[in-house]
Amino acid sequence: MTMTDPIADYLTRIRNAQMAKLETVRCPASKIKLAISGLLLEEGYIAAYQVHENAGKPEIEVALKYVNGTPAIEEIKRVSRPGLRAYRGRDEIPSNRAGLGTVILSTNLGLMTDKKARAQGIGGEVICTVF
To answer: pTM for the complete prediction?
Structure first.
């Protein structure tokens, strides 16, 4: 069976692993998943991530972060999906929870957070929101 939205699968694996209080979660790796993981690490939502080989295929292992037993990620949602893309201009970039959360955008300069996109004055496709 083919997967129609690998990014949604990746975000769901992280969400489910945190609800189950797991230390790490593994899933198939791709460039965009690595970029999302880098942004999540940079923003302090995960502890670390590594790429491993499993039967000749790359897998990404994400070390989840907990603060006093509570997951660092309260909510992680996919916004743009294959059936309904969500593009926003530089003046329409949403803010998550009045600026307390993070919105990850895919721009012509690569993946970046909403704060960086506003600072550079560019818009793009809204990949997901994290709080």
So the answer is: 0.95
